[in-house]
Write a structure and sequence with these properties.
alpha/beta; 2 domains; UDP-galactose 4-epimerase, domain 1; 292 residues; Rossmann fold; globular; 14% strand
Length: 292
C-alpha cells in the first residue's frame, strides 16, 4: 500500500512531550500525519510533511476539518472536561480508530489509587469512547521519566541538594519515547483493537535512587534530603496547583514500602525492551546542566 492509500492519522497534543514523538514515529512508518494545534505558530517546528490544522478540544466544531478523511486519532486530553462528550461524538462520526492516552487508574497499586481528578476524567472519556463502538486502544503510562527535570533539575543545576518528600517511594519511570512508540504502533498496526496497556519502565526505583542515577550520569554525587509534606507544599506554592501537589504527596506516601508496578507491555508490543531510567538520564543529561 502506498502512502497515498493510507488514511492520515490525526495527532492531538501534537507539540507535547509524547505527541511530538508520535508524529516522528508515524512518519518513519510511512503514515501520513495531521497535527491539531490551538496555535498555528506552535507547530512551526513540526516536520514539513505534517499537515497542520488549527482546532481546539473546547470548541468541538473546530475539529471537523482535521477529522474529515482521517483514519485514526491519537487523543491526548489536556482541556477542561466539559466538551468530552461532544468531542468523542465527533470522533465517532469521522474516524475508525482512536488511541487514547489515559492513566493507570484501574491498576491495583497504591501509587495509582489515590483520588485524582485527572484520572476520573480519563475514566469518563474511556466510557464515552467504549459506548461509540469505535476501534479503540487505551495506553496508560505510569510515572513518566520526563517528570524528573521539572522536579529536580533546578536544584541539580544549582549544584545544591535535592530536597524532596518520600524519597523511599518507588515507581518504574517510563521513557516518553517508548510511550510514543507504542502509541504509533497501535495507531497504524492491526491487532491492538480493544487493547488496554499499562506502560512502565523495566525496574522499580525509589525517588532517591532516581536522583542518584542522574548524579551518576553527570559524574557527581547529588545529595538527597528528605523533607516533610508541609515543607514540600511551601516549596512548591505558586509553582503547581495545590490539588496537584496534594495528589502527588498522597500517591508517593501510599507507595512507600511497595515495589513499583512493572509491566512487560512495551516489550510485548515493540519487540524491544523499554529504556531504563539510567538510559533516559544519559540521553537527557543536558536537562540538568543547561537552561533555567
Amino acid at each position: 500500500m502506498s502512502q497515498t492509500d493510507i488514511p492520515p492519522v490525526l495527532v492531538t497534543g501534537a507539540t507535547g512531550r509524547i505527541g511530538r514523538v508520535v508524529i516522528d514515529q508515524l512518519l518513519d512508518a510511512g503514515v501520513p500525519v495531521r497535527a491539531l494545534t490551538r496555535r498555528p505558530e506552535a507547530a512551526a517546528t513540526l516536520p514539513a510533511a505534517v499537515e497542520v490544522f488549527t482546532g481546539d478540544l473546547t470548541a468541538p466544531e473546530t475539529l471537523d476539518p482535521a477529522l474529515n478523511g482521517a483514519g485514526a486519532v491519537f487523543l491526548v486530553w489536556t482541556a477542561p472536561p466539559r466538551t468530552t462528550e461532544a468531542v468523542v461524538e465527533r470522533l465517532a462520526a469521522h474516524v475508525r480508530r482512536v488511541v487514547f492516552l489515559s492513566s493507570p487508574h484501574r491498576t491495583p497499586h497504591p501509587l495509582f489509587q489515590q483520588p485524582n481528578p485527572v484520572a476520573a476524567m480519563h475514566a469518563d472519556i474511556e466510557r464515552l469512547i467504549a459506548a461509540t463502538g469505535l476501534e479503540s486502544t487505551v495506553i496508560r503510562p505510569g510515572m513518566l521519566a520526563s517528570n524528573a527535570p521539572a522536579w529536580w533539575a533546578p536544584a541539580i543545576r544549582a549544584g545544591g541538594v535535592v530536597r524532596w518528600p518520600y524519597g523511599a517511594a518507588e515507581s518504574a519511570p517510563v521513557d516518553d519515547r517508548d510511550v510514543a512508540a507504542v502509541a504509533a504502533r497501535t495507531l497504524h498496526r492491526d491487532g491492538h483493537v480493544g487493547g488496554d496497556y499499562v506502560l512502565t519502565g523495566p525496574e522499580s526505583l525509589t525517588q532517591a535512587a532516581q536522583v542518584g542515577l542522574i548524579g551518576d550520569t553527570l559524574g557527581r554525587k547529588i545529595d538527597f534530603e528528605e523533607i516533610t509534606p508541609d515543607e514540600f507544599r511551601s516549596l512548591w506554592k505558586g509553582t503547581a496547583p495545590g490539588p496537584v501537589v496534594d495528589m502527588l504527596l498522597a500517591a508517593w506516601s501510599a507507595a512507600v514500602g511497595q515495589p513499583a508496578y512493572v509491566t512487560t507491555a512495551v516489550a510485548d508490543i515493540l519487540g524491544t525492551p523499554p529504556r531504563t531510567f539510567r538510559q533516559w538520564a544519559a540521553d537527557h543529561a543536558t536537562a540538568f546542566t543547561q537552561g533555567s
